[in-house]
Amino acid sequence: CGQCGKGFSTSLALVVHRRLHGEERPYEPYECPECGKGFRHSSHLTNHRRLHGQERPYECPECGKGFRQSGHLANHRRTHSGERPHACGLCGASFAQRSTLLQHRRIH
Questions:
Q1: Mean pLDDT score of the chain
Q2: pLDDT in tens, 9-33
Q3: Minimal CA–CA distance to 53: which of 28, 76, 32?
Q4: What are the helix (H) ranges across 1-108?
């Protein structure tokens, strides 16, 4: 952070922190009527609103588990296929989820 010098492991964490200093919020014209959270794109608001309800329109054809977002279903399907497309450039370990790879990189 340019104001207080605190460090963060992700850019999103820095953005959230900078708001504590009163820095201007980004332009987010789509606001959730239930919680007030703002979004830049209407599709992001649509996905967010599913969090407030129980709607899970994307169902795994192999096990029947439901998901709120199509990308989450795509990630889940890797548990059935064994696909591990995210590889560490330092040690070669591979992961089904990008988030797991990012977490793994912190050990190097």
A1: 89
A2: 988 888 888 888 876 666 788 889 8
A3: 32
A4: 11-20, 42-52, 70-81, 98-105
Amino acid at residue number 15:
V
* Paired sense of beta strands 58-59 and 86-87, if any: unpaired
Domains and CATH numbers, the chain: 11-52 (3.30.160), 58-105 (3.30.160.60)
The whole-number average pLDDT for the span 39-62 is 89
Residue 5 has pLDDT above 80, yes or no: yes
101 pLDDT exceeds 80?
yes
Angle at 36 between CA 102 and CA 44, to 5 degrees: 45
Both tokens assigned to 28: 């987010």
Q: What is the spatial distance between Cα 74 and Cα 98, in angstroms, rounded to a whole number? A: 12
SS3 (DSSP) at 86: strand
Closest CA to 39 of 54, 23, 27, 21: 27
